[in-house]
Amino acid sequence: STTGGRVAVTFGISDLAQLLNPSSKLSANPTFKRALAQLPAGAKADIYLNFEPIAVLASLDQGTVSSSGMKVLHRLDYLIAGGTHSHFRLVLTTY
Questions:
Q1: How many Å apart are CA 21 and CA 60, to the nearest integer?
Q2: Which residues touch 3 (CB under 8 Å, ≥6 apart)?
Q3: Which of 4, 9, 47, 60 could serve as a FRET partner for 54 with CA atoms 20 to 30 Å apart?
Q4: How crowded is residue 76: how many other Cβ atoms within 10 Å of its Cβ?
Q5: Dist. CA 4–CA 79, nearest whole Å
Q6: Rounded to whole angstroms, how far apart are CA atoms 15 and 83?
Q7: Burial (CB count <10 Å: 0-12, 13-18, 19+), residue 74
Q8: 84, 42 in Cβ contact below 8 A?
Q9: Phi and psi torsions of 51, nearest 5°
Q10: Residue 27: what pLDDT?
């Protein structure tokens, strides 16, 4: 779906209203908080990707995912990118 000039790719959300008014907020997510702390002070997160839900989705159909690919995916924790006007950082962490 697109809204406000943004593209949203979702799984398990049946309509846009549910996406725009979620039951929980990303700012309360412990993994997001840990990732945000890796950016420069005052930075905005331009990209945040939590790999755990992706690994769960990928493992739903074992016939389409290689076991070596799943091993790599399960080792990834998160990716976050963002910064300020003078400092940008990209962080990829593993378990």
A1: 27
A2: 16, 20
A3: 4
A4: 17
A5: 24
A6: 32
A7: middle
A8: yes
A9: -80, -20
A10: 87
- Amino acid 15 reads D
**Dihedral pair phi/psi, residue 79, rounded to 5°:** -125, 130
Radius of gyration of the chain (CA): 15
Q: Cβ contacts of residue 51 below 8 Å, gap of 6+?
A: 73, 76, 77, 78, 79
H or E element at residue 48: strand 44-50
Per-residue pLDDT, 37 = 92
pTM: 0.59
What's the rounded mean pLDDT across residues 38-63? 80
C-alpha to C-alpha distance for 10 and 6, rounded to whole angstroms: 13
